[in-house]
Amino acid sequence: MKKLAVAVSLATALLGSTAVYAADVEVVHWWTSGGEQAAAKVFAEEFNKTGDTWVDGAIALGETARATVMQRALGGDPPDVAQFNPGRQYEELIQAGLLLDLTPLAEKEGWDKFIRPKATADKCHIDGKWWCVPTNIHSQQWAWISNAAFEKAGITEIPTDIDGLVASLPALKKAGVIPIAVGGDGGGWQITLLANALFLNILGAEKREAVLKDLDTKVAAGPEVTKVFETIRALSEYSDEGAANRNWNDTTALVLNDRAGFQIMGDWAHGEFALAGKVAGKDYTCALGPSKKPYISLGGDIFVFFKQNDPEVERAQLSLASMMVSPEVQVKFNLAKGSLPIRSDVDMSAADACMQIGIPLLDDPSRVVPSDSTWRTEAFQQQENALYSDIWFNKDLSIADAQARFVDMIANAN
């Protein structure tokens, strides 16, 4: 009886401990599409297993979510955790002293030893301290192609570069499908993403960096940028009337339902195809670039952890940070998200044909480039959205005038 009493007392103490050391953690993110929700669910379920609780704060559209977080943080009521993009806004949070320093956890777990490539770690490891958790590697410049739509158009060999896709537009239109699917919601970020893919393919990595990072107005006024803008205009002639306010995942649905030929979108679209049960190589083709010699841009999601007054919340924040980079969760999450893991020491044998295109490129420094968002302010991104949307939708805007406007943007970017 004494042993039973001790056991009961111990169990009661443990239960009491669980109750005392459980915390609700509010996580703000913009993963609202079907595929994104499936990926977020991985994090939520794995975190809830620890005894703490993921309180979901999904807000549609990245710009809106970031603006909401910034407003709350600067107003003294930040969420516990928030999804962010590397860039100027995130750096402002560091400078304002609002973020929890993750350095002790990162050094204990050796993040600098397993997070790859170094540029991915560098987004969070700034001036010797860790300020965020990178969860995945996203590359923006992919083409998602409906095999059935191209077959309907009589095109038996799927093009995987931008010139081949542009050449296929008339045949796709004649076949009665939407040649290129695009959406204009959120101020036009989808068209900006397409434009940035063209910048990388047409200018190459060096000249792209000269324009977007070094703000070289001579390159901005040059013939390669002219070709970028001409290609945007050429593609725009083969979109559909529903493009203006359509979100990205509804645009992706046009391709996976074979109503459109192709979409240029980041690899988060991959999760939509997976969720729909579509098979890469059979139902659809994925082309990185789209280019014959593709680059992989190091975009990706990061999570920041805001300072809180409750030590139990801080403990739970650190628990979540540790879980996000753990090997098992990295595999589960990235298979659902369609992105690449930040670790090289995980088993990605279950990765499909699209993911297998990107994985080896991470080990080739000549094919890895920074995400353009690393260099841009939020204000400049809004200017880009407006310019590229005008090229797409406003046929009265000449290419020459559009490029002059771009040169002026570059000249005054800072």
From TrEMBL:
Keyword Transport: yes
Keyword Transport carried by entry: yes
Pfam families: SBP_bac_1
Main location: periplasm
Localization (cell): Periplasm
Signal peptide: 1-22
Alphabetic keyword roster: Periplasm, Signal, Sugar transport, Transport
Cellular component GO terms held in the UniProt record: periplasmic space
Domain of life: Bacteria
InterPro entries: Bact_solute-bd_prot1, SBP
Function: Part of a binding-protein-dependent transport system for a sugar.
Family: Belongs to the bacterial solute-binding protein 1 family.
Protein name as catalogued: Probable sugar-binding periplasmic protein
